[in-house]
Amino acid sequence: MTQINPPSVAIVGAGLSGLACARTLQDAGFRVQVFDKSRGVGGRLATRRTDHGSFDHGAQYFTARDPRFRKRVEQWVAQGIAAPWTPALLAIDMTSGSPVRAAVGDGTVRYVGLPAMNRIGRTLADGLEVRTDCTVTAARRVAGAGRREQWQLSAAEGKAATVTLEASFDWLVAAIPSPQAAMLLGEAGSLQAQARMLPMVPCWAVMASFDAPVEAGFDAAFVNGSALTWIARNNAKPGRDPGPECWVLHAARDWSETALEDPAEAVCARMLAEFSRVIGCSRTPLTARAHRWRYSGPGARTDLACLFDATSGAGACGDWLAGSRVEGAYLSGLELAGRILDAAH
Ligand SMILES: Cc1cc2nc3c(=O)[nH]c(=O)nc-3n(C[C@H](O)[C@H](O)[C@H](O)COP(=O)(O)OP(=O)(O)OC[C@H]3O[C@@H](n4cnc5c(N)ncnc54)[C@H](O)[C@@H]3O)c2cc1C
């Protein structure tokens, strides 16, 4: 049954956590508006398309352990938007100065989006009202029309100046990395302080394409004792264009922190030199570009699945809660939706 005056919710962030929360609340009858500062949806479950191939430069794959997420992933597989990925996977140890290889046979089922990682976010966003290219810069409590106070947002679309949005909302969800969430949650009880206690860490990524296959002898590797922590042949994933040879390199956390403000070109050159050392042969890419993920993942652990303040009508969700990674982000969004539904009824 359609409600005459359904509760409204503003969800800032169209990554997995925000989209999971949005879908659940919309299915329960809420009027949902999602905002994202990027041009597309999916957040760090991202794909960059270039003239020289396409790269999943954020999340590389996802695993599904919790029954709620497993069920969702099974649906995605049945819909043809995700598939298991079984790469020739190694662990490469560089601590001795030269690569020591070992096969990884951990029995983990790894999934990827089809034909690219960003398909997952796009599918989840289908049927939701999402305003992309819209950065929410502030959220404040204002007197609502005859009801309790509501949330009013300020936002900047594209390069335009910040304006106060006309609509106000009963509920506010910050589905964004903790430092960004903290900036919006100043009027949400203790949530700002809680978000500030959960830092996030950076990761430099390089997207490199080659004019011929790189004879590495594997598709992906966890790297230890190196500036790099992960390297993968993107075109080895199912459903990818087999044409251009595309590799994604991820730098280690400490290395990324040290190089955080270095120029992207210099970072790219250093990571490519290390790539040659790790694979044991020197290869010059056709093109290569570095991308800095300032907030790539949580830097601290918490048992909280989401943050919620019923008094102000606000909450936060994301991978920095609920156990990190894609699965954690999804579950955190579900948890927060559940808390809002309980409080609204
Ligand atoms: C390099 C890298 C490798 C990874 N590898 C893996 C992996 O192999 N497996 C795995 O499971 N996970 C991996 N992850 C982690 C995974 O991508 C994240 O855990 C998950 O995607 C986080 O989802 P989220 O919804 O919490 O946040 P996000 O995906 O970050 O979504 C937040 C969204 O909010 C938007 N936003 C931020 N601030 C504002 C604002 N003020 N106004 C409007 N919009 C805003 C952003 O544009 C973004 O779209 C990786 C991440 C990175 C960066």
Describe the structure.
Helix content is 26%, strand content 32%. It has 345 residues and is an alpha/beta fold. The chain has two domains: 8-39 and 132-198 and 302-344, 3-Layer(bba) Sandwich (FAD/NAD(P)-binding domain), CATH 3.50.50.60; 48-116 and 200-298, Polyamine Oxidase, Chain A, domain 2 (Alpha-Beta Complex). The strands form five sheets. It has a seven-stranded mixed beta sheet with strand order 7-6-15-16-17-14-18. The protein has a six-stranded mixed beta sheet with strand order 9-2-1-13-20-19. Strands 10-11-12 form a three-stranded antiparallel beta sheet, with no helix packed on it. Strand 3 (48-50) and strand 4 (53-55) form a beta hairpin. Helix 1 runs parallel beside helix 3 and helix 1 packs parallel to helix 8 (325-344). The model has no long low-confidence stretch (mean pLDDT 95). Flavin-adenine dinucleotide binds next to helix 1, strand 10, strand 14, strand 18 and helix 8.
